[in-house]
Amino acid sequence: MENLRTPFSLISNALLARTEGLGFNATCRVYNITTRSLRSWEKRFGKLKGLLMTYALTHSFIKQVVEGDELYTKVRSNVPQEDSQGWTILLIERASRFIWALDCGKKDEELFMKAIKRLSEVIQSTSDLSLFTDGERRYGNKLFQLCHESLKTGKPGRPKKVLKKDIKVRVKNKGSQSHKPGRKRPKYQAPQSEHPLTKQDISDHNINANHAEAFNASLRRRNSAYRRKTNTYAKLTEALQRTLDVYWVVHNFIRQHYTTKRVPAENLGIIEKGLSFFDLLNRVR
User: Fold this and answer.
1) Quick one: three-class SS letters along 109-163?
2) Residue 63: CB partners within 8 Å, gap ≥ 6?
């Protein structure tokens, strides 16, 4: 935040208001600042995401349970959902509530691969990782493309491809298929073959994305672009991603979660104590 003459207190208050649900123009009116200044502060603060993510990935984790889900909003105009640029992918660690991925764009392979590539980096530093998704099979399929290995058993023929050891993926199949003829899908399913030495210690009642759903509801309250009762949701995809980057930093490193009473990065063991806006704006170099 070098070369800025604005007091840190004003910048932090404005950014905090943005992450508590105040709209962009409303924040400018309340704090008597220009739209150019607020946009610049959000861009600069959001750039800390890359630095903090790199720092988080340098740590080693014994076990993680990650939930995946999607969130939808409109961008610029009202278009069919499949054409919207406002789809947001979330990957959140269940126990600590640490967000590993929070990216928006069109719901296509590029957006999914961006989130799964980040998850593959997390896998490299985690001894045992479980991924739960609520009805979206592409998470497991894309992860299989990046994190698979050939299972050599000594038998003739091509080795079978399986997920790497200690990686578990479960999908909760949505909807009832009792009215459809043919073979019925199981309620809980592994979309791809897993390593035979992977410990299968997942019970059925743990296969859910409830924490991700709760976060989605919270994000609709704390990010004005996701509210359902507004006429215009977000002007540009880049602007929507800018607000998500700011929210990612505040959620993971500044704001205490109301259930754990600790900052998610502190709860996951990345930092010893939660940070403040002053710490991030003044001391990170």
Assistant:
1) HHHHHHHHHHHHHHHHCEEEEEEEECCCCHHHHHHHHHCEEEECCCCCCCCEEEE
2) 126, 127, 128, 129
Return d(Cα 18, Cα 283) in angstroms, integer: 22
Q: Are 35 and 53 in contact (CB under 8 A)?
A: no
**Range of 43's domain?**
8-175+183-282
**pTM of the predicted structure, to 2 decimals:** 0.89
Domain membership of residue 63 (yes or no) is yes
In a domain, 1, yes or no: no
126-133 and 167-172: which strand pairing? parallel
The predicted-structure confidence for 226-281, as pLDDT tens digits, reads as follows 876 655 568 889 999 999 999 999 999 999 998 888 999 999 999 999 999 888 88
φ, ψ of residue 192 in degrees (nearest 5): -135, 160
Q: Residue 50 corresponds to which tokens in the numbers above?
A: 């890359």
Alpha-carbon gap, residue 1 to 20, rounded angstroms:
22
User: Within a domain: residue 158?
Assistant: yes
CA distance linking residue 240 with residue 88, whole number of Å: 10
Q: Would you state the structure tokens that stand for residue 210, as one six-digit string? A: 């409830």
What does the pLDDT read at residue 260? Answer: 87
Asked if 73 and 240 touch (Cβ cutoff 8 Å), the reply is yes
Per-residue tokens: 219: 């994000």
Report the candidate in 237, 265, 245 with the shortest Cα–Cα distance to residue 18: 245
Tokens encoding 236: 């540009």
The pair of structure tokens assigned to 165 is 């050891």
> Is 28 contained in some domain?
yes
**CA distance linking residue 21 with residue 220, whole number of Å:** 8
Tokens 């490299």 sit on residue: 124
User: Do β-strands 87-93 and 188-189 pair in parallel, antiparallel, or remain unpaired?
Assistant: unpaired
